[in-house]
Design goal:
The protein is 52% helix and 9% strand. By secondary structure, it is of the alpha+beta class. Strand 9 and strand 10 (281-282) form a beta hairpin. The relative contact order is 0.10.
Length: 600
């Protein structure tokens, strides 16, 4: 089986060189230096452009190389695995262009695509200082009464906390085009700052942030800026709908940021445990340390499985992306924050210090990742989105009306992906979720396989338990269906539980449809054979759903062995057989306190 998405990411990673080599442009040392100075990683971004990464942000129909979102996921993950500031600062250009990919004209798409591939930074102007996530309260507006005779929009107001607001030359701007606002009172304008009169806009100062310190988080203010009427993206008044559909794509792709952060954090935790000695024993030999590492490894693979299914579902289940994106954007940032918190306990004081263990990279990963759960819709926004869809989700699960064929294509890593049709994007999944609707059939399939292979019996039992809980969660959701305002805390809790059930269904679907492709690969076979990664993933989900554990320590010990084998062979710990760039030998004194006899 050829995994083109992972192979391209492997090629890109190799092009970027060994991040442990301080002479490489995109090295850990360089990223730490830029973070300390709060400086944008311009030289690193130029390296991305040398390889051609911007072309992967532009759909092929607009002249780029974006054919499937699984590929984008893996490429951005490769950047995020080294440094989240670079991933967020450079990847923002995709976010800036996505409104045009969703609703723009062919001419707009071709022009913007050419700019992006030429390295022009693009931004998305949504949030405002006084309104946060309340897009309907936005005050940036056009003044039709003062419109000039040349047929321009006259734009005034301020956007704030905008990534690339200062660096970006082009801005997709959500603008109030009706004085009274409302759902049909906003439009998206593709504003090219290069065409504006200098006195009609100004940049707001860079905001100093706890994480991603080098990113251009700033703002922009307009004062009667003349914007050509042809800058309108889609129909006038359709701005809110366009933005919400575009965010379904970007929220799904945010999974790459969390995956990369978890890859980095897990490797740092494992390196520390392998190399650290306490009281004459290596940390990796202590039961509690092994328990923490194995649990973190299980979560990393669980999150990867969800992300793979979600990324493929962008093209195979486009009409259900309102559910998929909300689940993914809630589950991966919160889950990765927890992985990093667990590993913090393992590293002790070195999790917070600079210049001691691994150049202080762990504390930077933790700081940088905290923002991922906030942009493109925070935790509560995504859970609220699921609550608003409870009626269709409950009905779809009971009637099995979700797109199960599309789910099957998302589960099968060997299946070709259809081209994305943005017209299929919908604010709600009207027929439910094909992923959860597929769960009974996947449980039946793994039960059938367990009859022939007794090693799968515990996994099949965990799958049956997940199905029982999923039915109960849908019954709980029925009690809150129809709630649109004043959402009670209990409904948010049901939505949280729903994300775990969806994740379990995604894992089961991925394993039942793709294990035949990967179980015989020397690099990944141990994880796929006998359902090892699936067993631990289901165990993690069931425990979080309040159920008894489904896997014992021996299963986690086996997973830990696979993690250590990946480290020693130079592979990414992943469901896919990706190799990492060759690492330089560790320099002496990398950890100034490497063999102390005291514990921090």
């Amino acid at each position: 089986m050829e995994h083109q998405s992972y192979r391209l990411a492997e090629e890109f990673d190799r092009f970027l060189g060994d991040p442990d080599d301080p002479d490489e442009v995109f090295s850990y040392a360089r990223c730490a230096e830029l973070d300390e100075r709060e400086e944008f990683p311009a030289d690193i971004c130029r390296r991305f452009e040398e390889w051609g990464l911007p072309a992967q942000y532009v759909p092929v129909e607009h002249g780029g190389r974006l054919r499937d979102y699984e590929r984008v996921l893996q490429l951005v993950r490769a950047v995020a695995r080294r440094d989240l500031t670079c991933a967020i600062g450079h990847g923002k250009t995709y976010l800036g262009g996505v409104c045009v990919w969703v609703a723009g004209s062919a001419e707009q798409g071709a022009r913007l695509g050419a700019d992006i591939m030429a390295g022009v930074p693009v931004s998305l102007g949504l949030t405002e200082r006084d309104h946060g996530s309340d897009l309907l309260a936005g005050d940036v507006r056009t003044d039709d009464k003062a419109a000039d005779t040349d047929g321009h929009w006259l734009v005034s107001g301020e956007k704030w906390l905008i990534n690339n607001a200062t660096r970006g030359s082009v801005l997709s701007l959500l603008t109030r085009t009706r004085p009274d606002g409302g759902p049909r009172g906003f439009s998206v304008l593709l504003v090219d700052k290069r065409e504006l009169d200098a006195g009609t806009y100004r940049h707001l100062p860079k905001i100093r942030t706890h994480g991603i310190r080098g990113a251009d988080i700033s703002g922009i203010a307009f004062d009667g800026a003349r914007v050509a009427r042809g800058a309108l993206v889609g129909a006038e008044g359709a701005g809110l709908e366009i933005v919400l559909k575009a965010l379904q794509l970007t929220r799904t792709m945010c999974a790459a940021l969390s995956l990369g952060a978890a890859d980095h954090g897990l490797r740092l935790g494992l390196d520390f445990a392998e190399d650290r000695e306490l009281y004459g024993r290596r940390l990796i030999d202590l039961p509690q340390a092994r328990h923490v590492l194995a649990g973190a490894a299980a979560d990393v693979l669980l999150h990867e499985a969800v992300a793979l299914v979600a990324a493929r579902a962008v093209q195979t289940q486009t009409a259900e992306l309102g559910v998929t994106s909300a689940v993914t954007k809630y589950l991966l940032p919160t889950g990765t924050d927890q992985v990093l918190a667990d590993l913090t306990g393992l590293l002790g004081a070195r999790a917070f210090l600079k210049g001691v263990h691994a150049g202080g990279r762990f504390q930077k990963v933790v700081r940088d990742h905290r923002i991922v759960g906030l942009f493109d819709g925070n935790t509560l926004v995504n859970l609220n989105s699921l609550v608003n869809q409870f009626r269709s989700l409950v009905r779809g699960f009971r009637r099995s009306t979700g797109d199960t064929a599309g789910a099957g294509a998302a589960f099968d890593l060997a299946a070709p992906l259809p081209a994305l049709d943005p017209a299929q994007l919908s604010l709600v999944a009207r027929h439910g979720s094909g992923v959860t609707a597929s769960l009974p059939a996947c449980v039946e399939e793994i039960t059938r396989r367990a009859e022939a292979d007794p090693a799968l019996a515990p996994v099949a039992e965990a799958a049956r338990r997940l199905l029982d809980v999923t039915r109960a969660v849908h019954a709980e959701a029925e009690e809150h269906q129809g709630v649109l305002t004043e959402v009670p805390p209990a409904a948010f809790e049901v939505a949280r539980r729903y994300t775990l059930c969806w994740a379990g269904a995604a894992c089961l679907g991925l394993w039942t449809h793709s294990t035949g492709h990967l179980a015989d690969d020397p690099a990944t076979g141990e994880l796929w054979r006998d359902g090892l990664w699936l067993h631990t993933a289901l165990d993690r989900l069931l425990v979080r759903l309040g159920e008894p554990a489904a896997a014992g320590e021996e299963t986690y010990e086996e997973l830990l062995g696979a993690l250590r084998a990946a480290r020693s062979s130079g592979r990414l710990f992943s469901l896919l057989p990706q190799r990492l760039p060759e690492r330089q030998p560790a320099s002496a004194g990398a950890d100034a306190g490497g063999t102390e006899r005291t514990s921090c």
